[in-house]
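look at this stuff:

>
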Amino acid sequence: MSSTEDYAHRGVRALVALHERELRAFLDTWKRAREANVNLPETGDPAYASLDALLGHVLRAARGYVVWTCEKLGEPDPGIDPAPDATELAGRADEYLEHVLAGWRRPLRELTEKHADREMYESSWGTPYCIDAMLEHAVMHPVRHAYQLEELMAAQGG
């Protein structure tokens, strides 16, 4: 993670650092869940079709949050490649994670407080967010899924 001086807004820097920390923690938890052969609950949600699908969901979302942010601010696309399909992603998770995190660091350095929390923009799921709130949402997304996996491992003896 870059130093505070590299960011115009310390709040944005904190959210980028927290996102990185929590995305890495999610991947570690996901690996432990995969090793323990954790079974996901039955659901019609394709993100829970398998542990590999869940990994893809979390990493695609991480990419999507920063792409959305750049789009709403009129900034160039951050250049993060779409995630490989779920079967390939599991074998390349560490590599793809680093690619996503690098894409997060570059475009948000010049974001000021004025840009972060003044205007509201509609998310792809229809909820309005300011940039700061979307970045907070991006931090919590891997936290929520890691928590779910931790609960499943505890319940399944993993």
